[in-house]
Amino acid sequence: MSLFVVEYTYTPETSSRRDDHRGDHRGWIAEMIRRKVVRSTGPLADGSGAFIIADGPDEETVTRLFQQDPFVQAKLVENVRVSEWHPVMGEFSE
């Protein structure tokens, strides 16, 4: 498995609707953590998006998986960027 950074970009216009779907989104993320797909996640401090560290076999599989997030399905994420990540030091390095 490889590590990927999944970057969500939000717009201010979807803020209140994200609040409406936050429980479903966090439930989905919690299931991904339980399945050891998501290793860490959290919003950016300025509210403009979120970073998620995920395990996966390849970029295409991770991209397809994150299309199932309730935030994405409700069209509350402006952009989803998936990038393979090769940490060389610290907690996530091999």
UniProtKB/TrEMBL annotation:
Coiled coil, from the record: none
Protein's name in the database: YciI family protein
Residue ranges constituting the YCII-related domain according to the UniProt record: 3-85
Record-linked Pfam families: YCII
Organism: Rhodococcus tibetensis
Family under the similarity heading: Belongs to the YciI family.
